[in-house]
Amino acid sequence: MRTDKETGRGVWAKNPYRPGDVLMTTRPYISVLSTHNLSSYCSACFGPAPPSGLKRCTQCRTIHYCSAACQTRDWTLHKRECPALQDWAKASPNAESLVPSDAVRSLARILWGKQKKGLDSIWSKEIDALQSHRKSLQPESFEVHAHLSHALVLFLGLSSPEDLGPFGIHSAGDLVDLVSRFITNTFTIATPSLTPLGACVSPLIALINHSCEPHAVVVFPRTSPASAQNEPAMQLIAIRPILPDQEVLITYVDITLPRPQRRKTLKETYHFVCNCSLCSNLTNTDPRDVLQCPKRCGGTCPIPTEENNITRCTSCKAGLTTVDEVLDAVRIGEEALAKATALQSQDPVKAKQLTTKLIPILTSAGLLPSAHPLLALSRLHQTLLLSSLPDSLTQDALDDVICAATRSSAGLNDVLLYGHPSRGICLAELGKLLAADEPQPKEQPKSQAEAALVYPPSGPKRLKLALDTLIRARSELMVGFGAVNEGGEVGKEVRESIVALEKELGVWKQGIRNVVEDMPKPLRKPL
Ligand SMILES: C[S@@+](CC[C@H](N)C(=O)[O-])C[C@H]1O[C@@H](n2cnc3c(N)ncnc32)[C@H](O)[C@@H]1O
Known about the structure:
The protein is an alpha+beta fold. The protein has helices at residues 68-91, 102-117, 122-128, 139-155, 172-185, 259-270, 277-280, 323-343, 348-364, 374-387, 395-415, 421-435, 448-453, 459-480, 488-518; strands spanning 2-4, 8-12, 22-26, 30-33, 55-56, 64-65, 187-190, 196-201, 209-210, 216-219, 234-238, 247-250, 290-292, 300-302.
């Protein structure tokens, strides 16, 4: 750890690292599941329900565990949390707020943890040393802070903030510091396939500063089910070569978003203006911000904005003549993205209608798959299609989701570095879909030219594409989720699918060979 005047504390590499190397493994100090995951994942190891189901805490009836060992491990904090959850539910005015928010449950766990370990313990000191932005808080965030503080005091069963003394909080300033430390240093826990599960705080991982072109990523690969007591294990994994004496940087925001959106979140949540290599490079065309050349010469041009609406192909210099159409498409695309994201869980049908309608509009306006908001809409569309696949799968439904996954993967590949976990997961999903049994295989095109236009292909061609995609997925997962982890849980599943597909393709080739060998041999001409 070193300290820099501008960025504060940070982590520097002592040794060289290659992409796929694990730099550190640690368990967060506190972690909580998001409310909607509380009954489907274990609150101690964050694993999914085993075949026998999860066991619910009989007292609070809110927290679930996968085993007695996990329940025992969580007991030191849950014994404080359990009565608080019961009292909160009793006082709740409606069924939607029977459980306090993830942030309130996390803050309470931090305070109970400090009390249990001792206010002078290293544990508590590391929490207290986390970066706080109390002094630079903007008036817009006062309301969030006040709301969280009020809910926290209620959840702890106290009558006023003055009663927080036993937790080391002696003034309003201390309380603002606690909330600010949580907001600046909290980390999203995800499944091995990157679905968000909840929130956690690790003082070690929280030391790492940000870049929109990160050297490393933090993932939860879950490599061995036998070691549930070490989960949720956070691993810091290199995705670029890192040299000794180089600062290790991760990203705090979604780096598929264009510069203005990234900078806004970094300013509002983390209180700094990003000057990373990607944010400072304004000369190159950013794949997050590009249209096809209006003359389709193969080049690209930057997406126009209200302020700068003159844009030309960087290759043939043709000027864009459909500026208003593009500006409108991007504006309604962004509105639809915000709406569909908000509706995703309450009304997925409506959300899918929005993504289905907007993707062709953005595509016909010339946006490339990597451009914002097309990439974000494509990824959301893929998730919505996958979760609404009918039980009796139809060829059209399967082919639709394959096309969506192909578009997302193409976009991600242009924006993210080789080996980024999101690229590997998207390829793995695409490969698995291509390998799925076709419900009603389509007739094979007669000519090669016709076949080239059909996507996704059918029959053996599709299986071969599935195999190639899974092989690419595996090599990317070996980077993003660590080579020693064999690409994490998903990397291992992909390896098994590759073996099964190779067998299937082998059987198919052997079948052809047998048919050929059984055919009557042409008579040899006499010499
Ligand atoms: C999770 S903490 C990282 C560790 C922090 N530097 C510390 O001293 O504890 C996040 C905070 O670090 C600072 N930070 C991280 N990356 C930065 C960057 N690229 N430029 C400026 N400040 C940065 C910001 O104050 C941010 O809110």
